[in-house]
Amino acid sequence: MAVFRFSWMKILLATFLLVTLIQSETEARAHNGLKVRRLVRREVDSQENANDSKDWDSELALGDEGTDDFLNDDDDGEDEDGDEDSDEDDTLDTKDTPAAAITSHPINFTLKAGSTVWLPCEISNAGYAVVMWKKGEAVLYQSTMKLTQDSRIHKFNNHTMMIQGVQTEDAGDYTCSVLGYSASETQQVTHSVQLYTEPKIVKMLPEGNNRLVLKGSTLIVQCIASGIPKPTIKWSRAGQRIREDGVEFDDNSIIIKHAKKADSGMYQCLASNSVGKPAHGAVDVKILYAPEVHIKKTVINTDEGYEAVLMCLVKSEPRAIITWQKGEEVITHNDNKYQIQFNNSDHSTLRIFHVTSDDFGKYTCKASNEYGNHHGHIDLVKVPERALWLEGRQDPSEDNPLLTWIVESIQPLTDIELKYLKVDERNDVVLNDRDWIIVRPDINQPTGNRYTISHALEGLTPGKYTAVVRSKNTQGWSQPSEHKFEGEYMSNEIRADERMEEAPQAEVRSSAVGHLPSSSSASILISSFFMYCLVRVL
């Protein structure tokens, strides 16, 4: 019986000791948990989302009136059982415990859509550290508590966070933080996630009225493109690559200083980054300038009773207003006498019906816009028009150049004067006006009122030449028309000398060939010599 009592007492004593140990451990964990919850509450209270803050407050509520006093002053309060707290009971002993520290470094991830990314957050001395993951300001994880509904996001025990099937909306900054007792003690590491994206044209500049650029000013064309990696930009205009001649390239822009009218047109940019297809953009730029009048034929031949057509070409931006004048008098459209036509906004034609003696004289084509004005003159005459030179060519049978030109005259041609001379090759000027060589080319039969005249020049030496021609009809001489040409010519005297030099050489060769002994003659001489020697011996 005594043995039974002793055993029973040992069982009770062991049970008491075990219960006491479990209670002490439970109290310690509760105390540490209280500290952790206080830190979590401090972090959560700083969130901008009011709804999340309410949820966290309800979960972290301590349920008694002494909670706030306890959180504010750990040293002087009582514990939940009403006992006095010692310094060892209400504070965490951190003197001998190293602080948690993040050892991972920031990483910039560039990924393909649909891939998986692991965001590391390695922590030394993690212990009871509170670890938080955020994207921007949105909390994704608070320790082991997941606060995002995205099923693609997972956090592992080593605090690494994984995102599966990365999409465009996942791009951004992800921050892993280890919360401390104060903001200065909080540590964090931030990773950047971005996706490879094909190029896209965001904007083309200039826009609107800025596409109109005054001649002589600076033109800047920009192609703003997005994409990862950053796209490279190539420029073209009217289907032709833009080179660096007169153009500055600056990242996504081209700069043209002192813009010319030729710089007008459609500028196209091609953005490429090896991801997907290249992107195209275009902007139409117009260079504004004053009118420029061009007259192709400044002299028009006609006669009384005929019809005359005067034409002028006008280049301008914006479109110019074109008027015709004879002397100081402005010509207006009149179906019986004058007809003024405009073609493609830059050609103007003045048609004069039934020319009379009063219609001969000087006409002016005038053009003006808001940036200036310009004009050109046309003479309506009875004498031949100024000769129009055609491309020079060599006479196919000789080394002489063949000059060809066209003359228009309703009245028959009676004379043609062609003069030419060699000019100074350095300054391209006539050395002596008395050195002109004058010839009278033949006059061919015209085709309608058009004469085509050709003349071959002889005796020229290599060098540059100037030719001037004028024509005469029954009303007088035309204005002179000048033509410059050059070549490696050979005069008749040089060709004759070369023939003389070649002839004696041929005779010498034939003479030399005639005096060489033939093989049969040599054989006869040798045979005669042996016969002579034989007779002497006998």
Count of separate DSSP helical elements: 6
Termini Cα gap: 183 Å
Average of pLDDT = 78
Amount of helix? 10-25%
Q: Radius of gyration in whole Å, from Cα?
A: 53 Å
Q: In terms of per-residue confidence, which ranges show pLDDT below 50 for 5 or more consecutive residues?
A: 30-37, 43-92, 492-530, 532-538
Number of domains: 5
Any guess at the CATH architecture of the largest domain? Sandwich
CATH class of the largest domain: Mainly Beta
Shape: rod-shaped
Number of strands: 37
Under CATH, the homologous superfamily of the largest domain reads Immunoglobulins
The main β sheet shows up as: 8 strands, mixed
The portion of residues forming beta strands comes to: 35-45%
Describe this structure in words.
- 20% of the residues lie in helices and 39% in strands.
- With 538 residues, the chain is of the alpha+beta class.
- It folds into five domains: 2-90; 101-195, Immunoglobulins (Immunoglobulin-like); 198-290, Immunoglobulin-like, CATH 2.60.40; 295-381, Immunoglobulin-like; 388-490, Immunoglobulins (Immunoglobulin-like, Sandwich), CATH 2.60.40.10.
- Strand 25 and strand 26 form a beta hairpin.
- The model is unreliable at 30-37, 43-92, 492-530 and 532-538 (pLDDT under 50).
In short:
This protein is of the alpha+beta class and 538 residues long. Strand 25 (338-343) and strand 26 (347-352) form a beta hairpin. The protein is rod-shaped.
